[in-house]
Design a protein that fits this description.
flat, 4 helices, about 140 residues, alpha+beta
């Protein structure tokens, strides 16, 4: 159940952020490449884009490092940034930044719900969820 609550929290947090944000075009100015050791013999390469954009209020250039890794990141690539003036914070508009946390927690939570709840209850919960989506 806590995974479903986390899904709801991520979804509401992103909705409130995007509701008050403005979309600004930015560009990748650098890439922070790092290697993460997953075990003694394995490692993974990560590429975090560093994004530059112009603050709409002050007209000054701002930079930030995206919180998600990306494949095939190249300098000079145009990207979209969501900028929230109220808190002066920014997020890269990408599936990894906006949707992946909600989807991952949601799928894991629903999987646990199906496994842990008796069939009659999980069937009823899914039935009402599908009704909310106007599928029945």
């Amino acid at each position: 159940m806590s995974f479903l609550i986390a899904t709801l929290w991520f979804s509401v947090d992103n909705y409130l952020f995007l509701k008050d944000a403005v979309a600004i075009e930015g560009k990748v100015v650098d890439v922070d490449r790092s290697i993460t050791r997953t075990s003694a013999s394995r490692s993974s390469k990560n590429s975090y884009p560093i994004i530059e954009y112009i603050n709409p209020l002050t007209q000054e250039k701002k930079k930030f490092k995206a919180s998600v890794t990306a494949l095939n990141v190249k300098r000079g690539t145009p990207v979209w940034v969501a900028y929230r003036q109220k808190t002066q914070t920014e997020k890269l508009i990408s599936f990894g930044e906006i949707l992946i946390p909600s989807i991952m927690f949601g799928l894991f939570g629903l999987t646990l719900l199906v496994i842990l709840f008796p069939l009659s209850e999980s069937s009823q919960i899914l039935y009402w969820f599908l009704r909310l989506l106007h599928l029945f």
